[in-house]
Amino acid sequence: MKQLKFFIDNRYSFFKTISVYLTYFSIGCVSALLGSSLLDLQILANTDFAKISLLVTFRSVGHVSGSLIAGIIGSKFKLSLVLAITNFFSGLFIGLVPFLVKFEYMSICILIAGINYGIADILSASSITIIWKDKCANFIQVLFLFGGIGALISPVITRPFLLPSNDEKTSFNMNSSMVNSIDVQSTFSKQNYESADVTVHYAFLICGLIGIIISIPFMYFYLNERKKSLEIQVKRNDQLANANPQQTNDLTWKSYIAVALVAIVGHSAYSLETVVNSLATSFSVKSDLHMDKKSGVLLATVFWSCFSFYRLIFIPLTFIISESKLLATSLTISLTGLLITVPWANNNEICIWIGFTLIGIGISPIFAASFGVLNSYIIITPRIVSIILSITLIGESIHPAIAAFLMTKKMIVFLYYLGALGISYILSLMILIVYCKKALEY
Hints:
The protein is mostly helical and 442 residues long. It folds into 2 domains: 11-241, MFS general substrate transporter like domains (Growth Hormone, Chain: A), CATH 1.20.1250; 244-442, MFS general substrate transporter like domains (Growth Hormone, Chain: A), CATH 1.20.1250.20. Helices cover 80% and strands 0% of the residues. The protein contains 19 helices and no strands. The protein has helices at 2-9, 11-45, 49-52, 54-76, 79-96, 103-132, 136-158, 174-177, 181-191, 201-227, 229-241, 253-286, 293-309, 311-317, 323-341, 349-363, 366-375, 382-409, 413-440. The chain starts with a helix and ends with a helix.
């Protein structure tokens, strides 16, 4: 009954929150869309795999660039207006990609879409913290859950429109295409496919249409909030006056240290996820395990499934178990997974399956929970979110490249690289929790 009253009293906030979740779902869809469709885009652009794979780099550069300017834009304009614009243009330009068959035009569209997704990424998290304030921890967990679901569903949307290869009647995703780009190129060249055979346009149109549709409710929010701006400002002032007494708007050097720790947690955790997403299949095939490509792809899918859906268990548990105990459990699960994986997963298939499952479960709530810890002590503004996520997203471009280079020397380095990133986010979160209690508690 109390929950029903809470929902009714905050129905506008819930409606707005769902729209933010759908924005993150759209971001998750597109993050996986490009990787799974690269080979078909290669045929459309009539170029080699090395060149078409640069689209991933353009998307990453755009995403990071958007995240860097999001804090400035978010402080000068209404978040609802910015999210309406970014959803619309990201959907528009991602939908145009397969129709502009020249590589240069594809790159421009991917870059522009990436910038818009980067801005939306930052401002989505900012919106949740602004809407729910000290209650935002679980809502942020759900936000990242929607991103993970989008990444899982995107290959399902894309698969029916992809061209089959010679040896498999299913397409490779980004992970399997990175196993051996030369092999993949030859596989497709033997098929003698032409641009007229490609139907991946429909997958891009579906993902683009999702973004355009999501822009509509945000435009409604903006017009509604502009009409009632005075009333909302008064209400916001009252909420700030009654906010958690531990929170403060004054960012001291102690506060910036806490922000830096959250950024390190995010950077390490997100980098580990990206390295697994990009190179897990390559490792499983090329290491002493010698798994087949389908099993390698399934391994990455299991990791992402555990990563996405463990939150459905974690969030309800926060109502009956303290968050500190749940975080301690997640860190223990992560550490156990790392100890099983490093270095035993190099030649033991059981270890890699168990290890990746435990790492996926353990890492799932970590980044969002670090936001919740920080929000208990300071008010998280769009500028702070921009700083944190900009540092976090840098790992998407840097670490897979470094890990891939080291793997050419020795495959087992992949496991030690995961271990280093895992230990980094575990220690950083532990230090963050202790530091906030000692330095920021009033």
